[in-house]
Amino acid sequence: MSITELDIPYRGGFVGPEHHFALTVYFEDTDTAGVVYYANYLKFMERARSDMIRAVGVDQAAALRGDGSAYFVTEVAIKYRKPARLGDDLVVVSTVEAVRAASVDIQQRVIRGTEQLTDARVTAAYLDRDGRPQRQPRDWVERFNRITTGM
């Protein structure tokens, strides 16, 4: 059996400092009225954020396997503006706003065409296996700083 392009998972990518991650709203994402359940926007943003971190060259899986360190969301502020619906094609646009010694602030917007549906600011802290903040690896900080928008 050979692997084709259809067998490769979708990956987002950078457009300047913005990371774009496209997805489609499926039935499982919606309530009985066909509207995306509010908590699922957080799942969409998590997938996009994880993909952005991978695309910038940070190997979270290796860190987790190594010393047990990982990024944990410590704060989210989200504004819901318009609902997404069953069958909609969406794009999650993520930008790094600030990089500190032990955390990263990321703005994430969910967009349908030209309409902004949500706007969120997420703080991801780098924590050790016991849940204590620790400095991010220097090369990770440098990678994030290269794509920071400085908003």
From TrEMBL:
Top-level taxon: Bacteria
Keyword annotations from UniProtKB, A to Z: Hydrolase
InterPro entries: 4-hydroxybenzoyl-CoA_TE (IPR050563), HotDog_dom_sf (IPR029069), YbgC/YbaW (IPR006684)
SUPFAM superfamilies from the UniProt entry: Thioesterase/thiol ester dehydrase-isomerase
EC code: 3.1.2.-
A Pfam family annotated for this UniProt entry: 4HBT_2
PANTHER family: 4-HYDROXYBENZOYL-COA THIOESTERASE FAMILY MEMBER, ACYL-COA THIOESTER HYDROLASE YBGC
Similarity comment text for this entry: Belongs to the 4-hydroxybenzoyl-CoA thioesterase family.
Designated name of the protein: YbgC/FadM family acyl-CoA thioesterase
Organism of this sequence: Sphingomonas daechungensis
